[in-house]
């Protein structure tokens, strides 16, 4: 609102399990003579892999994200203009081309056979049964290959993520090793500085969080997070199981994350901070060094600090090993559910999670269930019910 006039309105869509699947935003065109909102909203659609946001699509482009397996740390970003996708969608399969040219509809079995044949023709490996089938029709593989249309591969902008030890994106690296985008944050995820010469829309923040331009908040799966306050603005959906304060975010955001908006996941600090894991892999011969600014900084900082970082990690491990396994360890039971018998709020198989308490009360405490097991979690050692 500005001087009694609405400047912006946004509405959000959610699926039955609470994932945000879309939003519509109406903006004011501006000017004294046009105080009302636009009649045409800006529409954004979201797609998920479990609880991880993997696809964001607007009227202009589609952005897809690949994550580190079993985590919320982004690895790769692929941006494709919708015009490119439309060109790819205009491609006709062999079955579609033959049906249109013959002005007839093939039976499903014939369409399936032609789809299989087209795949073999593109690979240059036509099976003997298909060769015999074509011979019975008086055709050759070469004749059918001439009927196929060339596939159109959309042009995409590919960037690799460089993240800190928590999974917070620090930079996007181009294929040539240059930096296309980079940012600095404080501990709570507030952007302190952003360098974006290519105009990329990089909205991923702390693990599991997505920046909302309209509100300035971060969508955090089950809740909304305000980085200015360092806390949630929506109550904990687990109730008192999450603690007495229903709005609290992990009190130490450097060593804990909350990608689901439900509970804290422990992050062991030390050598994996600021690219240290990548640089250590290079020093150990497990990876190839790329001369990017982020890689250079990681190599320079890590080569002189490995011994002290390992010592810090060892000290931290000794502090945590008061229980066995250490306090904060998450274990899980896998609940395999047939698709026809979903367990609300899960649509299928899921994990029941337990967390080891603090010493001297080394007991497993149940605190929820999720579609994926948190990184670093272990199978529950039940029927044993605690540590030492």
Computed structural class: alpha+beta
**Structural Rg:** 26 Å
Discrete helix count: 8
Helix content: 10-25%
What number is the mean pLDDT?
A: 82
How far apart the termini lie comes to 58 Å
- How many DSSP-defined strands? 20
Give a structural overview.
This protein is α+β, with helices and mostly antiparallel strands and 388 residues long. It folds into 4 domains: 8-85 and 155-265, no CATH class; 91-147, no CATH class; 268-320, no CATH class; 322-388, no CATH class. It is 21% helix and 27% strand. The chain is built from 8 helices and 20 strands. A 10-stranded antiparallel sheet has the order 1-2-3-4-5-6-7-8-9-10. Strands 11-12-13-14 form a 4-stranded antiparallel sheet, with no helix packed on it. A hairpin with a 6-residue loop joins strand 11 (210-211) and strand 12. Helix 6 packs across helix 7 (293-303). It is globular, with a radius of gyration of 26 Å. The model is unreliable at 269-292, 301-314, 316-321 and 384-388 (pLDDT under 50).
Task: Tell me briefly what this model is.
It holds the Pfam family RHS. This protein is α+β, with helices and mostly antiparallel strands.
Features of the shown structure:
4-stranded antiparallel sheet, globular, T6SS_VgrG/RHS, 10-stranded antiparallel sheet, disordered C terminus, 388 residues, alpha+beta, 4 domains
Summarize the helices and strands and which ones pair or pack:
Elements: E1 8-14, E2 20-27, E3 42-49, E4 52-57, E5 61-67, E6 74-81, H1 82-89, H2 94-102, H3 108-123, H4 128-136, H5 141-147, E7 156-163, E8 169-173, E9 179-185, E10 191-195, E11 210-211, E12 218-220, E13 223-226, E14 231-232, E15 256-257, E16 265-266, H6 276-283, H7 293-303, H8 306-320, E17 330-335, E18 350-356, E19 364-370, E20 378-379
Parallel strand pairs: 17-20
Antiparallel strand pairs: 1-2, 2-3, 3-4, 4-5, 5-6, 6-7, 7-8, 8-9, 9-10, 11-12, 12-13, 13-14, 15-16, 17-18, 18-19
Helix pairs in contact: 6-7
